[in-house]
Amino acid sequence: MAEVLRTPGVRFTHLPDFPYSPHYVDDLSGYDGLRMHYVDEGPERAAAVFLCLHGEPTWSFLYRKMIPIFTGAGHRVVAPDFFGFGRSDKPVEDGVYQFDFHRGSLIALINRIDLKNITLVCQDWGGLLGLTLPMELPDRFSRLLVMNTALATGETKLSDGFRAWRQFVQDNPDFDVAGLMKRACPQLTDEECAAYAAPFPDTRYKAGLRRFPAMVPDHPGAPGAAVSRKARDWFRSEWSGESFMAVGMQDPVLGPPVMKALREIIRGCPEPYEVADAGHFVQESGDVVALKALEAFGL
């Protein structure tokens, strides 16, 4: 593989409310030479595992309000950083980052650390990728906690809001992550915004960030579209696990209309929990969402 960067550890020394020790795996099948980071908290042999998948432009820090709720109830939490994000390695070439590249790494990680009885916790790209996993590993997944996301089947015209975001990233390859998070979540402190930006010292570390908007399938033949359609059909007909949906009602891109359509796909999905003042990053209200989900699941 071409050049790979690793964010210096000193960048992660001041992370508010995120005291978790890093865990790494560098022998994922098919990913030679790449090291993936993941948070792993709670009892290793806990009956239930919450697999928390972040999106764009975030990393596992996004789940800092949900992790202690899940572990406090006696469960295990695994929150990986996708390659190109967080503490995981970052190939510098934009072209490395493809739908199957990310999806395959998640499957490899689940198999490598042998996760079972998984509750998939996902939002944004954590859902675009994560929602294609249960059909691949049906014996490993039991529950779904889904927040503002979608299945990108390539059959629906991209919204004007998303197209504007895609164009913004294209025009600003070194975009300001801290500033973006502050605009999206005005309640964040400067320290929290800096933590979101910590993995990306300069533009060379941002190839993964730049690629995600362009990777969203925008026609039926786009990479990832076919597997997403397969997942859609599987959730309609085969999914038998429990589901909980939380919707950030102020999200202009993946808000109530998109989530309503997703709910109609997920077999047996109950009425969503609406987070009235939350936008795209629902995890910033994650403590309340986690408690509501645990109550719904009886865990």
Can you walk me through this structure?
- By secondary structure, the protein is an alpha/beta fold.
- It is built from 10 helices and 10 strands.
- The protein has helices at 67-72, 99-112, 125-130, 160-171, 177-184, 190-197, 207-215, 225-237, 256-265, 286-297; strands at residues 4-5, 22-25, 36-41, 49-53, 76-80, 90-91, 118-122, 141-147, 242-248, 273-275.
- It has an 8-stranded mixed sheet with strand order 2-3-5-4-7-8-9-10, sandwiched between helices.
- Strand 4, helix 1 and strand 5 form a beta-alpha-beta unit.
- Helix 5 (177-184) packs across helix 6.
Secondary structure topology:
Layout (H helix, E strand, L loop, with lengths): L3 E2 L16 E4 L10 E6 L7 E5 L13 H6 L3 E5 L9 E2 L7 H14 L5 E5 L2 H6 L10 E7 L12 H12 L5 H8 L5 H8 L9 H9 L9 H13 L4 E7 L7 H10 L7 E3 L10 H12 L2
Parallel strand pairs: 4-5, 4-7, 7-8, 8-9, 9-10
Antiparallel strand pairs: 1-6, 2-3, 3-5
Helix pairs in contact: 5-6
The largest pleated sheet is described as: 8 strands, mixed
> How many β strands by DSSP?
10
Percent of sequence in beta strands: 15-25%
Distance between the termini: 43 Å
Order of helices and strands: EEEEHEEHEHEHHHHHEHEH
Structure classification: alpha/beta
Please, how many helices? 10
> Low-confidence segments, ≥5 residues, pLDDT <50?
none
Shape: globular
| Spatial ordering of strands, largest sheet | 2-3-5-4-7-8-9-10
The overall average pLDDT, rounded, is 96
Helix content: 25-40%
The radius of gyration over CA amounts to 18 Å
Features:
10 helices; two-stranded antiparallel sheet; alpha/beta; eight-stranded mixed β-sheet; 299 residues
